Amino acid sequence: MADEQIIATCTWTNSDATVECTGETFNADLAANDVVKIDIDGNPPYTVGTVTDDTHFELTTPFSGVTGTYSTVIQRSFTPNLHLERPMPGDHAWGELLSSVFDKLDGFLGYLINTAYSTIRKMTSVQSTDHTFDGDYFVGQAGENLVFGNFIYLKSDGKWWKANATAAATMPGMAMAIATINADANGNLLKRGFVRDDTWTWATKGALLWAGETAGTITLTQPSDVGDQVQCIGQVIDADNIWFEPSSVYLEV
Question: Which of 228, 242, 237, 246 has the alpha carbon at shortest distance from 173?
């Protein structure tokens, strides 16, 4: 359309996608994806689906309001993401415009915060299925065959090997294998999170867990032999579930 915004007199019908206007030339002035709105506060905008002729167009969704003839705003100049109206030359309705902007920004930011909290940071502490987890993970290359639950460290070759608390060269552990991964293959490795393995039989909820003295294992017993590496790697949730978060602080007995 020649102008970014025009005002037309249009008849809207409840539950109908067809809008009829008078005195317009929509074949030249209107196109799919333009935005139309009854010029009354509180009414939502609609999107043009197709232009039928100079006085009729179809909405992408049926009109949900009260049937009637209304002054209608037809506009192309909206921001692409939040669908905020841009001010037009000579437009003095700044209070209404800013109020609309704030309402839409509030709704959009609220959606982002709630979605992020629910889908990214809110973890489920007790997994109900064997060999499942909820946490932060990444992809790494195994240096040897690994299985679910193996506690692993990053070797100088850039690959992940089973950690063993009996030797400084195989410590500290940094992650856990959360799948069966063959040597030299890539697989998912857990950095921190809640994990379930039904072969575990932890007896004391809340007990600290340590890197084990057998390669790849975790244990309730803190290593105590001379030369052992002592690293806390998490806590017991219940018999089959743990919180896994290897400490960056460790010491040698």
Answer: 246
Residue 86 lies in a domain: yes
DSSP state letters, the chain:
--SSEEEEEEEE-TT--EEEEES--HHHH--TT-EEEESSTTPPPEEEEEE-SSSEEEESS---S--EEEEEEEE--B-TTT-PBPPPTT---HHHHHHHHHHHHHHHHHHHHHHHIIIII---SS-SSTTEEEEEEEEEEBSS-B-TT-EEEE-TTS-EEE--TT-GGG----EEE-S-B-TT-EEEEEEEEEEE-TT----STT-EEEE-SSTT-EESSPP-STT-EE-EEEEE-SSSEEEE---S--EE-
Specify whether 28 is located in the same domain as 91.
yes
Name the pTM for this structure: 0.56
Residues 77 and 152 in one domain: no
- What is residue 96's predicted lDDT score, i.e. its pLDDT? 62
Q: What pLDDT, in 10s, does the model give residues 217-253? A: 999 999 999 999 999 999 999 999 999 999 999 999 9
- In total, how many domains does the chain have? 2
The pLDDT of 6-28, averaged and rounded, is 87
Cis peptide before 223 (omega within 30 of 0): no
**Could you read off the pLDDT of 186-200 as tens digits, one per residue?**
999 999 999 999 999
Host domain of residue 54: 5-103
pLDDT digits (tens, 9 = 90+) for 132-172: 999 999 999 999 999 999 999 999 999 999 999 999 999 99
